[in-house]
């Protein structure tokens, strides 16, 4: 037998080893990070603060995701963007999941609840000081609210139901300019207004009375009987079923953002936000943020009783919402402490 020289034998052995090495042990190309587009109902609005914080601080990237936030405050709507594939999910108030089912025939689920109040105040005309002492006294009054499906209108309707009267027992007035609505409160054309900051302070500064603060969890429970599920991350049910791992990472990033908001004051949070969000009047923005950050004092779990109460407020507004599959509008499955 002719023996190979040692060097040639080693070369042959190495070649054979390479040929029989299973592919799994070779250096594989890294798996690309999942890319997700989220349609946000206003990327400069403090009501969407958690997802903006998560993006600014790199929490999505830390979870191995590439997330793009698309501003979608009006048209095309978040539902439109999800239906045609331009967006994978959305961030807006939870009741949008009712709207996508009833109006867009798209079943979407909230996977993390980030807001537990609408961040609003109920302001009563100064001329009615002493006459309107409780929310029940708003029965029969003329109130500036908002669009039919807006958070302001939902809040006003929910207040009516909790106070023991129907949503048709008050008159919802169409919105006008801020100065025109202040004049209406003064001359008797209107009796009350549902307002967000800084508008709420604008009306109070003109002598009107803050009847209820529906911003904190405590104030919201007093006005509505429960917290108000507001800002939520929701996605089509089909996407959730196909990408559970991606959804879990999205939720984890948002939970980190909630913890950051809870652990930092308005000035520290403002320091990491884009300049367009803070605006030119930094002091005014800090006052707004100091109040609005209380909306996000939650662990992310959707409380079913509160979700159901919000659904009933929407059903009172439009019976079509009674036909949706309520159980499909949220899931707590991606929150470890809710299992």
Question: SSE layout and pairings?
Answer:
Elements (H helix, E strand, L loop, with lengths): L5 H15 L14 E6 L8 H8 L2 H4 L3 E6 L6 H6 L5 E5 L2 H9 L3 E6 L6 E5 L17 E3 L6 H13 L7 E3 L4 H10 L4 E4 L3 H6 L4 E6 L2 H8 L6 E6 H6 L1 H20 L2 H5 L4 H4 L3 H11 L11 H14 L22
Parallel strand pairs: 1-2, 1-3, 6-7, 6-8
Antiparallel strand pairs: 3-10, 4-10, 5-8, 5-9
Q: What does this entry look like structurally?
A:
The structure is a single chain. With 339 residues, this protein is of the alpha/beta class. The chain contains 15 helices and ten strands. It has helices at 6-20, 49-56, 59-62, 78-83, 96-104, 151-163, 178-187, 199-204, 217-224, 237-242, 244-263, 266-270, 275-278, 282-292, 304-317, and strands at residues 35-40, 66-71, 89-93, 108-113, 120-124, 142-144, 171-173, 192-195, 209-214, 231-236. The strands form two sheets. Strands 2-1-3-10-4 form a five-stranded mixed beta sheet, sandwiched between helices. The protein has a five-stranded mixed beta sheet with strand order 7-6-8-5-9. Helix 2 packs across helix 11 (244-263) and helix 6 packs across helix 15 (304-317). The chain is globular and about 70 Å long. Residues 6-22 have low confidence and may be disordered.
